[in-house]
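#random but structural
TW: two for the price of one
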Amino acid sequence: MPVTIQQLIQWKQKNRPIVALTAWDYITAQLIDAAGVDLILVGDSMAAVLGYENTLPITLEEMLFHAKSVRRGIKQALMVVDLPFLTYQESVQQAMQSAGRVLKETGAQAVKLEGGYPAIAQTIERLVQAGIPVMGHVGLTPQSVHQLGLKQQGKTDTESEKILKQAIALEEAGAFSVVLEHIPNELALQITQKLSIPTIGIGAGVHCDGQVLVTSDLLGLSERQPPFAKVYTNLREQITEAVEAYSLEVREQKFPQ
C-alpha cells in the first residue's frame, strides 16, 4: 500500500526510521521508489540539476513540470514538493494558490515550505486548514542563502533556542513533519524528543526520525557535495568512462559491429 502521512507519524511512535530521497524525473523516481524509499521529495535542490547556482532562480512552473514526471514514476512512496522561493512568502493567498496548483496538477500529497518565523507558521496553519498537508523546514534554509550562507546553523545557545522554538511553532501550526538541515546533533535530538511529528534530518545527525539526501549527491552525480552528504557510488565517473568508451568505438569503427 502507498505510504501515507499517518504512517509517518506512526513510524515515529514506533521508532521506525523514515527513508527519504529527492527526485527530479520519471526514471529517478521509478528506481528509488522500487528500491523501497518511503518519501520522495521533489526539492528545489533540483536547481543544481538544471544548472542554476543556487535554489533561488527555480520557478513554480519548473517545479510543476518535473513533479508531474516524478509522480508518474511513483507507486508506493509519499510525494512532497517544495514551494520555490517567492511563491509563498508574499501572502497566504499566494501560498494557497501555489500549494493548490502543486496538489491539483502534480498529484503530490504535500508541499514543503522553508522557514520558521511567525508569518510562515501562520501560512502553514492556513494551508492545513484548507486541507493542504505541509512539511516544515528549519535550520539551514537554502532559500536564505544570501542571509545565512551554507554554514551549520544553531551552534550558539541563542540560535539553538530560536530553531527549537521555530520547530515547535511549525508543529503547532499543523505541519505533519519538519526537515532539520545542517544543525548540531544535540539540537536535532532535542527537537526530535520535543515534537510529536517526525523530524527528517539532512546533516543533522543520527537522532532524527528519518533521513533525506539529495539523490544526485548520493549517486556521485553532483559537482560539489555538502560536507554531510555520503556518496554511495560515483555515477559521474562511470558515465564519463562509458561515454568515452562509446565515443572511441565509434571513431575506430568498432561500434556497431
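TW: number two ↓
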Amino acid sequence: MASAREQQKRRKTLRPHPARDQIVDAMRSYGQPISPTRLAEVTGNTLGSIAYHVRTLLAAGVVELAEEGRVRGAVEHFYALVPVNEAEINDPLVGLQKLCGVLTLPTGENGYPQPVPLDDEARAQMQKLLDTMRPKVQRIVRETAKRAAAGR
C-alpha cells in the first residue's frame, strides 16, 4: 500500500481522463461500495479499462478497497471513494451538493475534479434553500404513505 505522501504525489500528477471521471461520478452517485464489474456495466466501459483506472485511483488515494465478496467462486472487490472528512459526509448541505452533482468541479490547474468546500455565504444560502424544500418533501412523503396505507 502506498504511503500518504506517495498518494498525495500521485494525486497531484493524476491527469483528467473520461473513464476516471465516469468512475468517480458513478461511485459518488451510487453512494456505497461498488465493484469494477458493476462500474463497467454502469459506465459502458470494458472491465479491463475500469480495472486499470480503479487501480490508478486506488494508488492515488482517491478510492479505497471497502470490502471483498465471493461471486461464482471468485473474489470480487468493492471500492468506495475515500471520505475526506466523516463530518462532511453526514452534513445535509453536502448531501444537497451530492444530490445536485456538484461535490466536485474541474480545477483550472489540471482539470481533474476537486472537492468544493462551502464558504459561510454558500452554506447560509443552501441552508435557506433546504429549509424551504424540507416541508414540501415531508408533505410528498406523507401523501405517499397515505396512498400506500389506502392500498393504491
